[in-house]
Write a structure and sequence with these properties.
This protein is mostly helical. It has 2 domains: 86 residues, Orthogonal Bundle (Rna Polymerase Sigma Factor, Chain: A), CATH 1.10.1740.10; 83 residues, Winged helix-like DNA-binding domain superfamily/Winged helix DNA-binding domain (Arc Repressor Mutant, subunit A, Orthogonal Bundle). It has 7 helices and no strands. Helix 1 crosses helix 2 and helix 2 crosses helix 3.
Length: 174
């Protein structure tokens, strides 16, 4: 009997999920989430399920409750990701630790000094702080007197610039 009740609950929730799927997309847009859409949709689905399980009809309508639950869960997920990215750097970026980002290094990295010389002083400093000294993005933000999202943008632009330079250099070699 318990299994049948569970199946009925799931069928009803499937209908709720279909009805509230546009709300998931609306919250994603409102929070300006521009990547990992499926990850955030899943967090929203879980929040919707939990809201559906906990909802008390005597306390009002379900829609506002569902919206607040979904919004809160996605906001929590954004905060969790922000904390993680402030403390950890992607593994692919660790390669920069070995490619001459340290201006104090005397090793020859096959022309990488030329690439680094094309960077501005501030770009070289950010590269050194992030990949040599292993500063967190929050510490770099404090150092430069800007926000953590500002550091993230600078880091992305810097890595893109280096990748373009490396691609250009590699195409000239081959």
């Amino acid at each position: 009997m318990h299994g049948l009740k569970r199946l009925i609950e799931l069928k009803f929730f499937q209908e709720v999920l279909e009805q509230y799927t546009p709300m998931l997309s609306a919250v994603i847009r409102k929070l300006h989430i521009y990547r990992d859409f499926e990850h955030f949709r899943q967090a929203g689905r879980v929040a919707l399920w939990q809201a559906w399980q906990r909802f008390d009809e005597t306390k009002g309508d379900f829609a506002p409750y569902a919206y607040r639950s979904i919004y809160g869960a996605m906001l929590d997920e954004l905060k969790r990701e922000a904390r993680f990215s402030d403390m950890h750097m992607p593994a692919e970026d660790d390669l920069l630790e070995y490619v001459g980002a340290d201006p104090r290094s005397e090793r020859d990295y096959g022309g990488l000094e030329d690439l680094l010389s094309e960077l501005t002083l501030q770009e070289r400093e950010l590269l050194s702080l992030l990949f040599v000294d292993r500063f967190s993005q929050a510490a770099c933000a404090t150092h430069f007197g800007i926000s953590v999202p500002g550091i993230k943008k600078r880091k992305e632009k810097l890595l893109l610039k280096l990748r373009k330079q490396l691609t250009k250099r590699n195409s000239m070699v081959t």
